Amino acid sequence: MPMDVRLQHKQEERLRVGTVLWKRKISEGVFNPLAVVDRYLILESEGYLYAFNAINGTMADEAEYGLRMKGVNAHYFSFSGLSSSEIAAVADTPPEIRPPMTSRIWDVSSKQQIYTKNGDIVGAPLTMGKKAFFGFINEWGRSYMIAFDLAGRRVLWERELDGHRIILKFPPVTDGENIYCRTLSHLVAISADDGRSTWVTKLTGKEKEEGYRDTIYFSAPLIHDRNVYLLRDEYLIPYRTNNGQTHYNSWRRYLGSIGPNAVEAASVPIVSRGRMYTAGGLYFLNGSMQAACGDTGGYSRIAAVDLSEKRTLWETDIDRVNVRKIVIAGKFLIIADHQGRVLCLSSATGRSLWGAELEGGVQVNPVVWFGRAFFGTDQGWLYCMAL
Fold first, then answer.
1. First to last CA, the chain
2. Residue 148 sits in a domain of what CATH number?
3. Taking the mean position of all CA atoms in its chain, how far away is CA 94?
4. Is the CB of residue 323 less than 8 Å from the CB of residue 317?
5. 219: Cβ contacts below 8 Å, ≥ 6 apart
6. DSSP 8-state symbol, 183
7. Fewer CB within 10 Å, N or C, the chain?
């Protein structure tokens, strides 16, 4: 299918409005992640940790919280999730409620900060047992990979990533042996044991030979079947985990018209049970379809891909929604955009199940817990919606 031809809409004309179980206003916008631990919705705002009853939205009772959370081995990672320029661009957000660029790790049971550092964690931290791995950009723009012992409350190793344009872009992934992260121009493998570099693969070069643009967009790294995958436009490109090599011409798989720059312009792709879900923001400029970073006049193309068979299972266009966040919850696929529009799709077919418009844009991933989806907006609203 030509890339400038839109798919037939799979949205139903009369989309069911999602059911809001409760909503609550807090004083600051929600830029830090949401997490559900036990029965509590946890978030940090302006350096304070908040806990709400996930069932009814009331503020957690101190005594009951302390009793229920005693001995719970859970941690909360706080980070703005946005760059300073992105935060400044958020509409109608006064400077006094913009989040500080200070990252923290909290012990949820004791409500203590066990790690604090100025800078920004890149994406959601990766946890393996009692260890957490995360990319970090410090105040001076230098990129690091950090391994943290959650039980011992200490940094195990910290490695600065050297090289040209080494700026981390996405959260890391792992196969249990190495940590894989993507920078502006390279795919990097680091030993999970000691942080030593295993291999580094440059991502540019081959595309220029084939006549592509100078700036090449790749997705976040994905792990599947002993390969690290990157999505580049409509192509899924595998890299061997032992050496970072790929047979570019014979190994890449064309997935169909899931959209140019599908994941660079929108949300990080997610993998669940051998399927990859992507969301690409698109809009029209002078009659040509382009990658979007938030143009409300365009649309997003949502797609599900079978990683084993390297084929697209379904794809659908969503009008006037530039997807920024996407989460899978069993048979449901939840998407949200920076304008506050949310949509629930069937993960099996892509059919739209329900939609809603929230007060404020969604800047952080929604979370799902026992048939409920929780959203936070940059206008300070918390929503609990029924799936």
1. 33
2. 2.40.128.630
3. 25
4. no
5. 170, 182, 230, 231, 232, 262, 263, 264, 268, 269, 278
6. B
7. N
150, part of any domain:
yes
Spatial separation of the C-alpha atoms in residues 137 and 311, rounded to whole Å: 36
List pLDDT tens digits, range 239-277: 889 998 886 554 556 565 555 444 444 567 888 888 988
Residue 247 domain-assigned (yes or no)? yes
Give residue-wise pLDDT tens across range 170-208.
788 999 999 998 887 788 999 999 999 999 988 764 544
Please name which of 283, 246, 239, 287 lies closest in space to residue 261, comparing C-alpha atoms.
283
Q: How many CA atoms lie within 13 A of 266 on its CB side?
A: 38
Specify the pTM.
Answer: 0.84
Largest Cα span, the chain: 65
Query: Strands 332-337 and 75-78, how do they pair?
Result: unpaired
Beta-bridged to residue 183, according to DSSP, are 168
* Mean pLDDT to the nearest integer, 139-148: 85
Kindly state whether residue 164 falls inside one of the protein's structural domains. yes
CA 160 → CA 64, 166, 228, 251, 274, distances in Å? 43, 9, 22, 32, 33
Q: How many domains does the chain fold into? A: 1
Residue type at position 172: P
Please state the length of the chain. Answer: 387
Give the separation between CA 44 and CA 100, rounded to whole angstroms.
11
Give 84's DSSP letter. H
**Residue owning tokens 């957690």:** 60
- In terms of Cβ atoms closer than 10 Å to its own Cβ (0-12, 13-18, 19+), residue 304 is buried
Q: What are phi and psi of 48, to 5 degrees?
A: -110, 145
What gap in Å lies between CA 82 and CA 287, rounded to an integer?
31
User: Is pLDDT above 70 for 4?
Assistant: no
Distance from C-alpha of 38 to C-alpha of 99, rounded to nearest angstrom: 26
- Comparing C-alpha atoms, which of 352, 343, 305 is closest to residue 323? 343
Alpha carbon 207 to chain centroid distance?
Answer: 26
Tell me the residue range of the domain where 250 lies.
Answer: 122-254
Residue with tokens 């000691």: 194
Q: Is 223 inside a domain boundary?
A: yes
Residue 75's φ and ψ, nearest 5 degrees, are -135, 150
CB 245, CB 239: distance < 8 Å: yes
